[in-house]
Amino acid sequence: MPTTRFFCELIGIDSHVFSREENSIIEAELYTRIYHEMFEFFKVRYQDYFRLIKFNADMVNDMMEENFARCLVNDILATEEYTLQGIASYTQTPEEVIEEVAIGQNTRPSAILLRRIIELHRTVRSELYREMMKKIASEYLAVG
């Protein structure tokens, strides 16, 4: 299910009432919010490592930005629902590229690849995304 439709259903809005352009804007906003939520999720997950290495806040943020796609791919692999080959197939990307992301050699994958990785991650960690979307929805509803 596309992210926009999933979000709209969660907050009780019919995504079909929006124009194509409006849906694109909503989707861009959602991906930005998902990025920030996942960024914080991984930051908390690796906080002991950052504390051990004695990273300051800027160093942590730089490290997380640099390794965001890597964290997603490795989290997918940790579920054991997909292999590198499976991720490559789902994202329609050569396996070598996925491997480069997984080991941190490619820290800046294309936007299309990152989007596909997020979509796959959403399927294997659906409960996490459902909770994030509820949080995002409640924040938007509180503002409105």
Topology:
Layout lengths: L2 H9 L8 H26 L1 H7 L3 H22 L5 H8 L3 H9 L7 H14 L1 H18 L1
Specify the structural class.
mainly alpha
End-to-end span in angstroms?
25 Å
Strand content: under 5%
Tally of helical segments: 8
Could you report the average pLDDT, rounded to the nearest whole number? 89
Q: Roughly how much helix do the residues carry, as a percent range?
A: over 70%
Q: Which spans of ≥5 residues are poorly predicted at pLDDT below 50?
A: none
Query: Could you tell me the number of beta strands?
Result: 0
Largest sheet: none
Shape: globular
Computed Rg: 16 Å
Q: Secondary-structure element sequence? A: HHHHHHHH
Structural commentary:
- This protein is mainly alpha-helical and 144 residues long.
- It is built from 8 helices and no strands.
- Helix 7 crosses helix 8 (126-143).
- The protein is globular and about 45 Å long.
- The two termini are 25 Å apart.
- 16% of the residues are buried.
- The model has no long low-confidence stretch (mean pLDDT 89).
